[in-house]
Amino acid sequence: MKVLGPAVKLGIFAVVTIVLTVILGATIANSSVSSAAGYTAMVTDSSGLQVGDDVRMRGVKIGRVTSLEVADNQYAAIAFEVDKSRALPAGVTAVIKYRNLIGQRYLALDAPKPAEPGVLPVGGTIPLERTRPALNLTDLFNGFQPLFQALTPAEVNKLSGEIIAVFQGEGETVTDLLATTASLTGTIADRDRVIGQVITNLNTVIGNVSARSPELTDLLDTLQRLVSGLADDKAAIGSAIESIDDLTRTTAGLVHDARPPLKANIDELGELAELLNKYEGTVEPQLRNWGPKLDKLIPTASYGGWFQYYACIVSGKISIEQLGITVPILPIPGTELSPRCRP
């Protein structure tokens, strides 16, 4: 009996030690001894996520990442397992988030609001439209580069951590973020002269605009009436545009048809101009003498395309060579006395 008691105590101590060692080892290995159900999440980029990283829901670890593979040569398929006792909602979403500033990540699951009925079956896949990759810290910090230049290294580290938390929806309030940037106000105070100059320039611009307010008001009113008038006449304007289009097409066709004869006329006018220029000394006097002649010819030819003649004095002879006869033509007596025949 004296030996049995210490042996029992030693056995109990050994069992407890082994159990605690197994639990500690499972915790260090980031694994679970309970039964687990496997799922898959499709994401555009799984950079930084490693096999064995946590799978969390509402901040509570419920599983781990088991594998990472390339799907369709353009996406990442994240295989993970969660405790079988935890059923995932049908519309569950997955986001890769940062655990800390050194780059460790974890897979965060969340239920949609409002929740969809049903659960995601074991072995199911969270589609691409319900997943998001991790926040790109490079692009984020490049955007905050001007702010970081005004802070100390310690303040930058603290601010960076809170920026990540805020952008991932895990920050308690934005107040902490604003409090960390308090040192920025000192830098702004050093720039008060520049800011004052900017405000002065803005006041000048506003003053000029205010001084021109009547003209600006009239301009806006006129523009409003113009736009309203155009809106009221949009049907007529549309019809006019269609008519202009038809006119343009007709004119284009007319010009196309008239172009060959017009070109020929221009060529002939060129030749006529050369002839007139060549015989300028003869043509010019003739043109000057045509005026009086045309005054007499125009009334005569006004009855048609022919001329009327009245014989005042006709003389001559008619010869017939075959017969050897010559007949004289004598003036008609009295015609030379007609008023139209007098000089």
TrEMBL record:
Pfam families: Mce4_CUP1 (PF11887), MlaD (PF02470). Residues 119-298 form the Mammalian cell entry C-terminal domain. Residues 39-111 form the Mce/MlaD domain. InterPro entries: Mce, Mce/MlaD, Mce_C, MlaD_Phospholipid_Transporter. Signal peptide: none annotated. PANTHER family: INTERMEMBRANE PHOSPHOLIPID TRANSPORT SYSTEM BINDING PROTEIN MLAD-RELATED, MCE-FAMILY PROTEIN MCE1B. This is MlaD family protein. It comes from Pseudonocardia eucalypti.
